């Protein structure tokens, strides 16, 4: 979708109506990922792809029809009979495609969404793809960290979807969510597709050790773009860190300073220092704690290492307010022993810090699980994804 958004906006600005087809769910060996899109313009041009060729013709015809009559439709394509090679997916996969009209009337927020994307600001769009009331199909809710814009048909639905998609937005992920018709979290009838246009948040892991390899895998699973950095080239190799997006050989504090200067870290960035070595971690933590506020800064080590590190940082002039931002020793008390268990402990604390969680067992809480966060904190993510319900029969192909 991101790739063709400029073309979508061109027709929108010209006052035209186009048909936009988006892959909202995939099953088995689907040829294209969720979020893939095809645009059929008012003059019949086709841009983008939803299947790499398998069902492009059928989707094009449907997109042209929606561009003409303005009626959104949810369809499913898959291999189940002799029509596999005429309309279905010869690869054996199944895809759900939502086709909607795009115009100034149906999607008034489009220009502001494009402006956010161009500026690098995280933004996402929740679209109603199924509802008992056909008038709600295709409604949009624009979700930003600062709030929501749009209307899905009821204040309750707006609030529930706005809350639940913050986690997807933070991770830069698409997703399909199911609610009761009025936004009830228990129930069915309302289905929305959330398209996230946020870049992935970054996880910067310093120290090329076994714990870093496990943490890189866990961070990638959670949707982070993972960088492992160490000054020792013999240890900092891509082969040792297959879960990382990049492995950097550089002095940690110099690398982080360069990233700050280039504007490549933000308040969603996580820094984990696993070096245990004062000559690496003290200069690095000085940079991390004195720079713009990060989502999380943590350092590994024993109590003795922690006490020595804090003393060295204080001697270097790091103030109490800055030291208060440091999680050291990092992680929650899970009784972890292995690198993998330790990685779970670390990412658990990162999640709790992001959403204002306490780290307590849910069974001991006396308040509701999805509670409101403290002032200034992000709200907790309570996203629930649906388990492959069938689209309404009148809209299945």
From TrEMBL:
This is XdhC/CoxI family protein. PANTHER family: ALDEHYDE OXIDOREDUCTASE MOLYBDENUM COFACTOR ASSEMBLY PROTEIN, MOLYBDENUM COFACTOR INSERTION CHAPERONE PAOD. It holds the Pfam family XdhC_C. Residues 203-350 form the XdhC Rossmann domain. It comes from the Bacteria. It comes from Cryobacterium melibiosiphilum. Residues 359-397 are annotated as: Disordered. Residues 12-78, 117-180 form the XdhC- CoxI domain. InterPro entries: MoCofactor_Util/Proc, XdhC_CoxI, XdhC_Rossmann_dom.
């Amino acid at each position: 979708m991101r790739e063709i958004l400029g073309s979508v906006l061109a027709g929108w600005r010209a006052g035209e109506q186009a048909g936009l087809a988006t892959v909202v769910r995939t099953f088995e060996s689907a040829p294209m990922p969720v979020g893939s899109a095809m645009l059929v313009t008012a003059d019949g041009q086709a841009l983008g792809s939803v299947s790499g060729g398998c069902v492009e013709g059928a989707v094009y015809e449907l997109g042209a029809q929606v561009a003409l009559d303005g009626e959104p439709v949810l369809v499913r394509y898959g291999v189940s009979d002799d029509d596999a090679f005429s309309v279905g997916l010869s690869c054996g996969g199944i895809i759900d495609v939502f086709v909607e009209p795009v115009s100034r009337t149906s999607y008034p927020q489009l220009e502001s969404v494009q402006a956010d994307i161009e500026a690098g600001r995280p933004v996402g769009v929740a679209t109603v793809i199924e509802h008992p009331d056909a008038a709600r199909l295709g409604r949009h809710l624009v979700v930003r960290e600062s709030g929501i814009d749009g209307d899905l048909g009821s204040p309750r639905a707006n609030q529930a979807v706005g809350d639940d998609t913050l986690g997807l937005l933070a991770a830069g992920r698409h997703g399909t969510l199911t609610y009761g018709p009025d936004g009830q979290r228990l129930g069915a009838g309302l289905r929305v597709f959330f398209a996230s246009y946020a870049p992935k948040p970054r996880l910067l892991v310093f120290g090329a050790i076994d714990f870093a390899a496990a943490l890189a895998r866990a961070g990638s699973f959670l949707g982070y773009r993972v960088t492992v950095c160490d000054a020792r080239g013999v240890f900092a190799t891509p082969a040792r860190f297959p879960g990382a997006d990049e492995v950097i050989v550089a002095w940690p504090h110099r690398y982080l300073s360069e990233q700050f200067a280039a504007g490549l870290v933000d308040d969603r960035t996580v820094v984990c220092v696993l070096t245990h070595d004062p000559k690496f971690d003290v200069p690095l933590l000085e940079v991390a704690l004195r720079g713009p506020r990060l989502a999380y800064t943590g350092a590994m080590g024993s109590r003795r290492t922690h006490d020595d590190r804090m003393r060295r940082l204080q001697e270097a002039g790091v103030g109490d307010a800055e030291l208060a931002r440091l999680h050291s020793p990092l992680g929650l008390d899970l009784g972890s022993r292995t690198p993998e268990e330790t990685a779970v402990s670390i990412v658990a604390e990162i999640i709790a810090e992001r959403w204002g969680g306490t780290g307590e067992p849910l069974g001991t809480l006396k308040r509701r699980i999805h509670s409101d966060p403290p002032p200034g904190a992000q709200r907790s993510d309570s996203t629930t994804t649906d388990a492959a319900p069938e689209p309404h029969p009148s809209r299945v192909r």
